[in-house]
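Can anyone check this?
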Amino acid sequence: MSELSKEQQRQLVRTWQSAGEELEKMRREQLRNLAYRWQDVDALLELGDLYRGPPREMSGLVEMQRWFMEFARRQGLLPPAVAETKGQYKAGENP
């Protein structure tokens, strides 16, 4: 197979992006048209009731905020000097 030119590579990427968007539309449409079954919903909710593992130590909100700050920094919305305070957080504890 021969090397693709830069323009051919760009066209290939555009084609894959377009195909991905169309596949995503099809997937969402199929999900919208699924029949709603209470049995399936009850089975999923029961999984939460049956969980007997250790409790979560973090809620996930702190991690989400860290990602938001990183994305804002990457997009130039924050100066690079803004630093996140390091520390341990456990759900249910007051700082």
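Reply from J.R.: I decoded it. Residues 1-50 form one domain.
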